Amino acid sequence: MTSPVHVAVVVAAIAVSAVCRAQDDTPGDLAHAHFLHEVPPPPVPLIASEAGFEEWQRKHRRAYDDGAAASAAYAAYADNVGAAARMQRVNPHATFAVGRRADVRFERALPWPKRHRPPAVTEPPRDLPRPTPPHVDWRAVGAVVPVADVGACAGAAVAFTVTTVASAAAKLRGISGKELVAASAQQLVDCGRRECHGTTPDAVVQSLLANNGGLLLTNKSYPWRRTSQACDSKRIGGVAAYRVTGTRRFNPDDEADLEYQVSQGPVGVTVRAADWGLYEGGVISECGRGSPGGKADYVATIVGYNNAANPPHWILQHSWGAEWGIGGAVLLAKGQNTCGVLDAPFTVGVEPVVPTLDDD
């Protein structure tokens, strides 16, 4: 019989071998690798109660300034636990648990649908150039900026998705050189329109084009402050990462096309994430109740997919911090429009700040 120690040594050797092979791969090949996703533990019963809330407070050392704050926190806790219980019942491949953010009310990032009209769809090519690889993960080649945490500024999720997609495109097209240059979401929040209270990717980009000619600063020049502030005119003269030229929509409800687009680079999507707050791992296949009317309420970035997994899934980078989900990511089942992931995929056009002579 094989000993546990022997098995551990073999597993470690395989992991080291995989890393060594990855170091010899080209960036394109490495992107078609995927992060191993830990199998979530069996779910535990999710029932909201005052006793459970008090136990959770002790475990996470949470205290509140007054009774009103405690009542608001318990209301959020009860709503989150209720949502998690609903999601757990319909998602056998995922795990939801009462984690450290159970008292946080997860606000929507998109405005209510009646407040805006989606732009016209840009038709993608019908004939896809080549077959897509079975799995892709753009984090593996350093083409994805670190996971953000929007804090109380929920609308900043839109800005972070725009900068995540744009920064990846700039790196993969060689616009930012060999390095990944993180762009400033704070600039988009401060110098845009109501970005902490709900906006759209198109509104964010149009505001940038109108106010700063599309010039998007680096995050180092205009760092994230976790809140909306007045537009800092002194910082606007800082180092620009690249120029944003606009957004492009892909056809909705076309999984084959979306898979091809993701094989070329990260893609932004709108999703129904209202009930994801206590997600801890695994693959979501049903979205639960979600937002009223089943409308999108959040924006995230598809950074890859895995068709070899069971079930096959998309890999989405969210903006609730790296401690949420699987290192800040969530897995959504493919083969269906899970949580509206196919409804409105988009990318962000970028170009160098100073065009070269070879540019058209």
TrEMBL record:
For the keyword Signal, the answer is: yes
- Which SUPFAM superfamilies is this protein grouped with? Cysteine proteinases (SSF54001)
Q: Does the keyword Signal apply?
A: yes
Q: A single Gene Ontology molecular function, please? A: cysteine-type peptidase activity
Which top-level group of life is the source organism from? Eukaryota
Show where the Peptidase C1A papain C-terminal domain sits. 132-349
InterPro entries attached here? Papain-like_cys_pep_sf (IPR038765), Peptidase_C1A (IPR013128), Peptidase_C1A_C (IPR000668)
Leader sequence residues: 1-22
GO annotation, biological process? proteolysis
| Keywords, in A-Z order | Signal
Against Pfam families, the record matches this protein to: Peptidase_C1
Q: Which family does it belong to?
A: Belongs to the peptidase C1 family.
Instruction: Kindly provide the name given to this protein in its UniProt entry.
Output: Peptidase C1A papain C-terminal domain-containing protein
